[in-house]
Fold each of these.
Amino acid sequence: MSNINNNIKEILVSEDELASINKKLGQMITKDYKNKNLLIIGLLKGCIPFVGDLMKNIDLDLRLEFLKVSSYLGTSSTGNVKIKEDITINVEGYDVLIIDDILDTGRTTSFIKELFIQRNAKSVKVCCLLDKKEGRVIEFDADYIGKDIPNLFVVGYGLDFNEKYRNLPYIGILNENYYK
Ligand code: IMP
Ligand code: MG
């Protein structure tokens, strides 16, 4: 077993930067959802570290649920969004905030946003830690973005390459020989 850090070419978002992003987003969400009924829905598994750190910066009552989706194989989106495990509560009356690790083609998040609109949530917004705007194949914007990044394949802090590297404490760029 090799140390995971060995396969990282460059750190793109450091632990310190992640902490300040979470603080800033948490403050914005706290302000915007003051008189609302906040239901955070994290998209598994990539959201795990982000949602955990972000919610500690939200100074409001909130409810937390998770949805398991898949659309990626290796380093490319299949464009085919599947719900692997659904939430078990009725979203009517809730102000849903969908939390995802990264916005790339836009397919996953727009599909999930539409799903909760159809289920009659009071409102539906999207918060993504990273935004790869150049990767977009459909028109879609998140309501809250931690950081815009170039069109590179990144791992760490929840983001995986074939289920590995989610446990890195920062966001890094993989050495190309590991996936090409
Ligand atoms: P989209 O549907 O193309 O916007 O893809 C969103 C999902 O693809 C994310 O939730 C990630 O799971 C995955 N993804 C997109 N870009 C990357 C990346 O650079 N590294 C790891 N996963 C990624
Ligand atoms: Mg993923």
Amino acid sequence: MTLPPRLISLLRERPRTVVHTGAGMSAESGIATFRSSGGMWDRLDLMDLATPDGFLRHTEASQRWYAQRMQQAQTVTPHAGYDALVHLEHEMPVTIVTQNVDGLHHRAGSSTVHELHGTLRTAHCFACGHPSHLADATDFPVHCTTCGGFIRPDVVWFGEMLPEAALSAAFAATETCALFLHVGTSSNVYPAASLPGLARDAGAMVVEINPEPGLPHGVAHYTLPHPAGQALPALVNALRT
Ligand code: BJW
């Protein structure tokens, strides 16, 4: 893969870097994306499974879907692109801002990770908020042992607020970085979709990594139309040569 010379020059300056990842980052580890052809929402209705109203109307189906995804997230292996990001943080200051809930950046060993849409690692009661478990459930629907409410994953659904600490850290890092890598997201969901424009306005070089790039014209300086598992190791290799 040929990288733009200006990107290689910037990398060699060891810039403050933000890596913003979406579902495509985990595709090569075997986790389905949401909106791509063959993605989860080709087969499932997101309004039934991943909204507060949908959860209350289809509690058992939603809990089963999340329990299965929680188990999958614990068993898949982070691919070479994840390892490349761990390597990159030994070379330059790297902040990872992820929309993903699968925890693969943590499992790969990245140290500064802000999870905008929560996590599949934990769960709580939808009614009383008490921490609970869902991943190992065998009987559905799963109820809270404290109040009898339904157990939900610690993820952010449409219409819900993003975790304040992660969101403010993401904006702060984006506004002060020199390189912004936008990896594997369809850029449909806000406020995450506003980050690349913010980075560009603040003076960062914006690079989109996606086999089917989708940022509006004029946001990315460069597009690498390749899978994350190939493009991210190529960036690390550029530092070695
Ligand atoms: C590869 C690849 C490979 C494949 N390598 N790439 C401003 C304007 C308009 C609307 C709003 C707005 N502000 C807020 C809203 C409302 C709403 C929203 O954005 N709606 C839009 C749909 C229009 N946002 C919210 O409600 C958010 N909350 C919020 O803003 O609170 C304040 C507020 C509340 C109420 C009113 C107003 C403000 C919350 C959003 C929560 C999103 N939750 C989900 C589910 C999480 C739980 C779960 O996982 O089950 O998060 S939805 C789903 O989409 C998930 C993802 O994180 C998110 C983004 O998806 P992503 O990552 O982009 O995946 P895909 O599948 O879309 O794309 C994959 C990409 O990978 C593709 O491009 C492929 O080409 C690529 N790819 N293989 C690299 N190998």
